[in-house]
Amino acid sequence: MASGEVSAVELTAAHHARIDAVNPVLNAVIAEAREGARTAARAADQRRASGAALPPLHGVPMTHKDTHDAAGLPTVKGSPLFADTVPTTSSLIIDRLQAAGVISTGKTNVPELAAGSHTFNTVFGTTVNPWDITRSAFGSSGGVAAVIAAGIQPAGDGSDMGGSLRTPASFTNRVGFRASSAVADRAPDAALRSAGVLGPVLGAVAGRRPGRILHRPG
What we know:
Elements: H1 8-26, E1 29-32, H2 34-50, E2 61-65, H3 92-99, E3 103-108, E4 120-121, E5 125-126, E6 128-129, E7 132-136, H4 142-149, E8 156-160, H5 166-171, E9 175-176, E10 197-202
Parallel strand pairs: 2-3
Antiparallel strand pairs: 1-3, 4-5, 6-7, 8-10, 9-10
Helix pairs in contact: 1-2
């Protein structure tokens, strides 16, 4: 990216193409803002061309877990109660990712109110496991784990109280990391509201290539 060998516009186009290829079966990406992402990608390329210092995740397209507010994108949390919610400000984790150069492209599915170990809700339906679409991607960060395992993006944000990062990652052959509560950053008003922490799901493990096994059994 820094050398210009690949551009943010090209990465974003590849990201969108992969969503188009696999999401009709996967059902992990439940909201998008493609024109906004393309605009952000063009701005990222202009920044590189200007010679300005680049942040560590410069130009990386990424969808976000749908319990995390991202300004201008819906935050439905898998619940009919929030079906029309579009926040005007972003969660701390989204602010930090965007400051690091991430291009926000959409939201990923969760169980209703993130309260469940299977990524299903009555608003968007079920997210399947890209390794075997008859299997669960678990939850509550199942949508995030699924988009990474399907090759849509290399990493993503999630959250974890009792396994919501770690278990979906294990179901999809990824890595989910739950930091200690005393270490993980959180918004100033969040410390007493939840024992959950924010964290990442990361890409391929055990030498296996992600996103090439999505198929219909038989």
